[in-house]
Amino acid sequence: xxxxxxxxxxxxxxxxxxxxAASDKNVISLAGxxxxxxxxxxELMKPTLERLADTPEVFQYGSTSGYGPLLSFLGDYFKLPGxxxxxxxxxxxxxxxxxxxxxxxxxDKVLMExxxxxxxxxxxxxxxxxxxxxxxxxxxxxxxxLEQCFAEQKPKMFYAVPxxxxxxxxxxxxxxxxxxxxxxxxxxVALIEDAPYRELRFSGEALPMxxxxxxxxxxxxxxxxxxxxxxxxxxxxxxKVSYLEPLIKIKQGADLHSSVxxxxxxxxxxEHDNFETHITIIRELYKSRYxxxxxELEKQLPTGCVLRPVDGGMxxxxxxxxxxxxxxxxxxxxxxxxxxxxxxxxxxxxxxKTALRLNFTNATSEELKVAVTRxxxxxxxx
Length: 382
Hints:
CATH class of the largest domain: Alpha Beta
Distance between the termini: 45 Å
Number of strands: 14
Keywords: Aminotransferase, Pyridoxal phosphate, Transferase
Strand content: 15-25%
Domain Aminotransferase class I/classII large: 27-375
CATH superfamily of the largest domain: Type I PLP-dependent aspartate aminotransferase-like (Major domain)
CATH architecture of the largest domain: 3-Layer(aba) Sandwich
Helix content: 40-55%
Structural class: alpha/beta
Strand order of the largest sheet: 2-9-8-7-6-3-4-5
Mean pLDDT: 94
Radius of gyration: 21 Å
CATH topology of the largest domain: Aspartate Aminotransferase, domain 2
Low-confidence stretches: none
Largest sheet: 8 strands, mixed
Protein name: Aminotransferase class I/II-fold pyridoxal phosphate-dependent enzyme
Order of helices and strands: HHEHHEHEHEEHEHEEEHHHEEHEEEH
Pfam family, one: Aminotran_1_2
GO molecular function: pyridoxal phosphate binding; transaminase activity
Number of helices: 13
């Protein structure tokens, strides 16, 4: 049976392929965006896990929008406007998929920063969107390019990761957030704000979300994969009621609802007295690993590499001298370190910067030192 034309155009995920190769115990992986398993709050979840056996109702079919007690809790937790509503999804990736299926027709224009999150490019590719791009600065998207694109191309939506961007780690400046929101309102462009790394800030003060400045023009995707557990597969979509109603209709046909026991488990975790302490511990751990990696990169990278600090998240983006980054990644694998080359983060036809994305959250400090030494050795002999 022939597969759909939309799927024929989608490339397989290079990241998943390289992660498979990186499973070799002799390879230190800086490739995947994986949280450290030691941070999973299993002890905090135990009381709720034990109580679930006494609540058979959570094992019944549930509401498509989500588990009532969790929805009520999150409404207060996120301080949502009265005009907004919440939907629980099977990971925030499903939320992105539902948005694309509900709102994007073949040929509709969707704007993204480049480089950008591979999963988002795949989702919008599957609905045959016309992906437009705007370049990124150290403070967020290039605002001149953004306004020109809004005015001339009239995209339907702008997808962005303003807090500790994947793959570059860039965190938008306050002025950029305000200006992007202003432009979304002025040109009637929907902002799709993806915020999976927002809670992983380990330096500096938290900034308002971009959607705080344009709440009626935004849909927000949040994830608990980085601060609780990816295996829970619980994401959250928020936005005004008229924006979310079509998503609920699509989700009914997709999977009826996300796992109710997992939603109940997350609710118990979020209500636990030590949950905020748990997040603090994660931030401190990741900061210590980032500090080690960044320090080693500064000392060992050859001339011609460009390295920028980050204040949180899971990734460091290293621009390197011109080369075939796929071949470089293969050579690095042979030398015992896995990385992700930059072209996978660019849509077809976009101008690609020669760079590598490095993850620092899922390797120990000692492993990070060894990995950077191996990386620098190969770069020196390019």
